[in-house]
Task: inverse folding
DNA sequence: ACTGGATCCTGACTGC
DNA sequence: TGCAGTCAGGATCCAG
C-alpha cells in the first residue's frame, strides 16, 4: 500500500496519540510478518514511554525514552490506526500497542509483508536501515547526486529510482509520476540519462512527494491516515493507473509497460 | 558489482 | 453464481 507519502501521513496521524505516551504493553495475534515479531515484545515495551515517532525511508520509528526503537514497516498492505482498546480486532489486525489512556495503536496487514522490529541500538545501525540512500525530501537528493550514482548503470532509470540504496521512499506510483514530470522514459538506461535531466528528475521527485503528502497520500484501495481519513492524491496522478487516457500535456494515450516486473505508466509523446 | 527474476501473502477484480 | 487466473502501493534473496 504505502510509499513515502502514505507512511509520512500515517506518522503525522498517529504521532499526536503516541508521542509522550507510556506503553502498557503489546498484544501480538499473528507474529508471522515478513520477519517474526519479537516474542517478548510485550515485556520489552511495557511501562516505557514513546519519546518520538519518526520516519526513515518507509519505516516508522517509535523511539522510546532512554534507549531502544521499535521499527514498523507497512509493506504492501499495512496500515496503522489509533482506536479505543475495546474495538474488536478484525481478520488481519496482527499487533496492538497498548497506550496509556485506553487507546491502542493497531497494525493491520492482510498480506503480512510488513514488519515489527526491535533494536536497542541507535536505529540507523540496524541492518534494515544501514546502507539506505538519502531521504528524497532532504537537500542530499540533487541532480548531481543522481547523475553520479547512475554512471555505468545499465538498469532502467525507473528501477534505479526505486532502489533504496540510491534514494529511499520512491515506490511504483511516484516513480512513474516523477519520470513523467521530468520527461524521462521509464525504461531508459539509468547511465544514459544526462545531468540536466537528472536535475529535473530530482526536483520532480521532491515535488510529487510533497504534493502527495499535502493531499493526504494516495488511496488506491484502502489506505487511510492514522485517523482513518483517505488520501486525495489519486486524482492528481497524471499517468499511474491511467493507461489509455489522454496525456494532460500532449493528448497522446498513456501507455503501460512492465519494467522490472512492475507496471509502469508513461506518455510516449512527452517522455524520451 | 550489477542485474533480473522468484518469492513471501491475501484480497479484489476480470473473464469465462 | 462459481471458479480460475491476474494483479496489487515492498523489498529481500539468489543465481548468473
Result:
Amino acid at each position: 500500500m504505502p510509499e513515502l507519502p502514505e507512511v509520512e501521513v500515517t506518522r503525522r496521524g498517529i504521532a499526536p496519540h503516541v508521542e509522550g505516551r507510556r506503553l502498557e504493553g503489546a498484544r501480538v495475534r499473528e507474529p508471522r510478518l515478513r520477519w517474526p515479531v519479537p516474542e517478548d515484545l510485550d515485556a520489552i515495551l511495557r511501562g516505557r514511554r514513546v519519546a518520538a515517532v519518526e520516519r526513515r525511508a518507509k519505516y516508522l520509528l517509535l523511539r522510546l525514552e532512554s534507549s531502544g526503537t521499535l521499527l514498523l514497516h507497512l509493506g504492501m498492505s499495512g496500515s496503522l490506526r489509533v482506536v479505543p482498546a475495546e474495538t474488536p480486532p478484525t481478520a488481519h489486525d496482527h499487533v496492538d500497542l497498548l497506550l496509556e489512556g485506553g487507546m491502542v495503536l493497531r497494525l493491520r496487514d492482510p498480506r503480512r509483508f510488513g514488519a515489527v522490529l526491535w533494536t536497542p541500538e541507535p536505529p540507523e545501525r540496524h541492518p534494515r536501515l544501514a546502507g539506505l540512500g538519502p531521504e528524497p525530501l532532504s537537500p542530499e537528493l540533487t541532480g548531481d547526486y543522481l547523475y553520479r550514482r547512475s554512471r555505468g548503470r545499465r538498469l532502467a532509470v525507473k528501477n534505479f529510482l526505486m532502489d533504496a540504496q540510491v534514494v529511499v521512499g520512491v515506490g511504483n506510483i511516484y516513480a512513474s509520476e516523477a519520470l513523467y514530470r521530468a520527461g524521462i522514459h521509464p525504461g531508459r538506461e539509468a547511465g544514459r540519462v544526462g545531468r540536466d535531466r537528472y536535475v529535473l528528475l530530482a526536483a520532480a521527485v521532491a515535488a510529487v512527494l510533497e504534493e502527495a503528502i499535502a493531499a493526504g497520500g494516495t488511496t488506491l484501495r484502502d489506505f487511510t491516515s492514522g485517523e482513518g481519513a483517505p488520501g486525495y492524491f489519486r486524482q492528481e496522478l497524471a499517468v499511474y493507473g491511467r493507461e489509455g487516457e489522454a496525456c494532460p500535456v500532449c493528448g497522446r494515450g498513456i501507455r503501460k509497460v512492465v519494467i522490472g516486473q512492475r507496471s509502469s505508466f508513461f506518455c510516449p509523446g512527452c517522455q524520451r
